[in-house]
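Chapter review. Work through the record for F-box domain-containing protein before attempting the end-of-chapter questions.
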Amino acid sequence: METTMDALKKDELSVIPIPPLPIELFLAFFVAVIESTYPDMGKSKARELNARTVRHASQVCRYWRETLLNYPAIWGQVICLHLGSLRWYEELLHRSKISPIDLIEDEVIYEGQYLTSVLQHYSRIRILDLSIWEDVLIANPQLIDLCGELPLLQEFRLIGTTHLFSFWQPTDKCVASIGIAPALYKLSQCFLQFDIRTAAIQNITHLELEQTMLLPLSQYLTVLQNTKKLQVLSIIDSFHPLGPQHGSLPRVSLPCLYAITLEGCLSSCVELLSHLETHPELSLSLTCERVNYHLRSISSTSNYIHNLILHWSPDNFQPFLETKSRSNTLRIYNTGQLNPKKFPGSQGDQLLQLKLTWEPLDMISSQRDIVSPMLNALAIQPMENLQILAMNFASKLSPQLFKITKCFLSMCSSVQELAQVTTWGSDELMLILEQEPHSPRVLLPSLQKISLGQSNKRDAYKYSRLREFMTRRCICLDITFWSYKQELVEYMKAMIPNLNIVWDPNHPSSRFY
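C-alpha cells for F-box domain-containing protein:
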C-alpha cells in the first residue's frame, strides 16, 4: 500500500489532486461513481480501473488527467464516500478546490468541531443523509455544531432522514448550530430540529424549513424577529398543532419579505400570518386541508397579498375565488403538487394571468355535479383583460372537467397566449380548442400563441391535427422538447407552420436519442 502511494506522489504525471487515501479504496470509489453517474461514458473503462488491475501509478494519473478532469461533477462526489475519518476530507477538499461542495458523511457526528476548520474556506455547504444509529444519538445528540467563524459561508443546507424519528425523544437537541457567518444568506433544514443563533441569521434572505421537528409557533416568531432582511420564507410540515398560547406572541415586522410558502397545520399557518408585517406585495402559497374555513381569516390578516396560491377542492373553490380583489395573479389547484413555475405579477386590479391545474379527481364521485359551482365561481372573475392562460392537465380529462374547460374558454375573449405545462398529446387539446359543429362562437378568438411541453417522443407524431388549426387561425406554436431527435425536429418543422422548437436539456427527462 505504501509503495503505491509513494509512487503516486513521485510520479511526474501526478498533476491531479491526490488525497491521502489507500489507492485501492479510492479507485474502487471512482469505479462506482463513474458507473452510476456516467454509464454511457465510463462503464467499460471504469471497470478496467479496478484496484486489482492497476499496476502502475502512472496509469492512474494518466486516466485522471484525460478523463476525470472533463467531468468536474465527479470531484464533487468524491467527498460523498464514507471513508472513515473526516481528516481525509480536509486534504481532498483542499487539493481538489471544490466549491461549492456537497458533504455526505457520518463522521461529522464525532468531529463536529473539526468540521469548522475544514469548511471555513467554502461558500456553500450541504450536509445530507445523516444515517446514524440510536447509540450514537444517545451519546451525542448535538449533530452539527459549527461554532467557529465561517466568513465565506453563503448557503447551508442540512437534511436528515425520516427513520431518525423512530428513536428521537422530544427533549433531544438534534440541531444545526451555526456560529459567525456574516455572508450567510440561505439556510435550509429538513427532518431536523433547529437551534439557530442570531449571529448566523441576521443577514439571511432565504429561510427554508421542511419537515423539521414540530415546533410551537412562538419559536418560529422568535427566530423571525432576528431576520430583518428576510425575503423568502418556507415552512413545510413543521408546525406543531396550535394549542393554548401562554402569554402574548410578538408581532414581527419583515418589510423585505415578499414570498411565503406554508404547508401543514392550517390554524398555525393563519396564526403565523396574523403576526407578520410583510412587503406590500406578498406572494402567499398555502397548502392545507379545509382551506375554506379559514380563508377569510387569511384575507383579513394579510391586506396586500399579490399572488395567492391555494390547493382547493370543490368544497372550498367558491370562497377561494371570492378573494379575487387581493390577488392579481390567480392560480387554482385541487390536489397534487404546486407547480414551481411562476408567472410575473400583473399591475392594477384586473386579472391578467390565470393558471388552471386540473389534477385527477378520483376521490370525487363521478355522480357528483362539480361543473355548475366551478363555472359559477369562474364567472365572477373579470376575464375581459385576461392575457395569459396556463392549463396543466395531469391526466385524461373526465367528461365533467372537459365540459368545465370548454365552457370556461368561452368566457375568455382576450387571451393571447395559451400555455400548457404538461402535455399528454394534442388530441384532447384539439377537442377543447376546436369549435363544435354549428357553433357560432370561436374559442379564444384573440389567441396568437400556444406553448406546449412534450414528454414522450411518440407524442410529437400526434400533432397532425394541429396543422389545419394553426394554419386556419394563424397561430404560432412553441414546443419545448425534453427528448431530442433530429429527424423528429425536421418532421415537426415540415408539418406545422409557425413552429418554434426549443430543447430543454435541464428537464429531468431530457435525453438524446
